[in-house]
Amino acid sequence: QGRLVESGGGLVQFGGSLTLSCVASGFALDSWAVGWFRRTPGKQREGVACIDKNETKTHYEESAKGRFTITRDNAKNTVLLQMNSLKPEDTAIYYCSVSTYWGQGTQVTDST
User: What mean pLDDT comes out for the span 72-95?
Assistant: First the structure.
């Protein structure tokens, strides 16, 4: 049974940084593209960034461009989301997704 587990969320001050981690178990991540999404209260889930299985292509939504970086380490079955220059509007639950799998999410909250 495949599973995704996100971690790395927490309280962060305006302008600060966090690195989110998504670790897969039960299947090999290197065969799949991976996406990061987020959901804020009262809003639909939205895409943040995605990366192809070979780490040759990445895509960022406008809200993440220039501030977030998605990378992967297939040997560790892990995908990271480095978030810099965080803004209050980045407060959300962040999820990673592979195919039909979704993690439980990790909360990022602006503490300013």
Answer: 95
pLDDT mean across residues, the chain: 94
The number of angstroms, rounded, from the C-alpha of 68 to the middle of its chain's C-alpha atoms is 9
- Cα–chain center distance at 51: 10
Q: Report yes or no: 49 and 81 within 8 Å, Cβ to Cβ.
A: yes
**If DSSP codes are grouped into helix, strand and coil, which group holds residue 16?**
coil
Which class for 43: exposed (0-12), middle (13-18), buried (19 or more C-beta within 10 A)?
exposed
Task: Report the C-alpha gap between 36 and 14 in whole angstroms.
Answer: 21
* Residue in 30, 102, 31 with CA at minimum distance from that of residue 72: 30
**Predicted confidence band of residue 92 (pLDDT cuts 50, 70, 90):** very high
Q: Report the candidate in 8, 9, 31 with the shortest Cα–Cα distance to residue 77.
A: 31
d(CA 38, CA 14): 18
What is the separation of C-alpha 75 from the centre of its chain, rounded to a whole number of angstroms? 18
Alpha carbon of residue 53 to chain centroid: 15
